[in-house]
Amino acid sequence: MSSFSRAFFTAVLGTGFGLWLTSMAVDGRFDIGLWRAGPWTFQPRIGAPDADPYARATAARFGQVPLGVAEGLTLTARRDSSGRPLTPSCGYEISGSMPVARFWTLTVMSPTGTPRGDAGVRTGFTSSEILRMADGSFRIELATNARAGNWLPLQEGKPFLLMLRLYDTAAGSTLSALDAAAFPRISRLTCAGASP
Question: Which CATH architecture does the domain made up of 32-191 adopt?
């Protein structure tokens, strides 16, 4: 093999590997620039004018318009509080309370962070409509079968993630306010064909 052929092969291989790594990073498979609060992950500066290139590329890749730093915070969860990946074959309970915010939404989304597009099916709750317990806490169940109270349907075979948006919250102004205990837990319940 000539030196030119080796150089060409090396350049093609290096370019392909670099593009593959970039694609993986933009698809959110690496935790580049991510912060964690329990099962919830977020990019604190994604809506800032000086957001890092990976945050901007991720938003552009999925066609997202991130909240500005002064507007609020967007968090996602792909795993439960025990670290297990969310799967539509299992049921889940989201429970506890939220950080102080003027308004919040919790939505079941596709794995790319876009609306699932399930016509006529509830995909989320807001802070103004959720049923609460006497102490102000709440409990939401995610399952394929209907449940009493706050219930969000899952569809068998359709992967999902959870997106939590906190509007006008003090949590967006200081990262020290983002304590995992201040966010709701995601607990796995029963799974189809297996014990939890």
Answer: Sandwich (2.60)
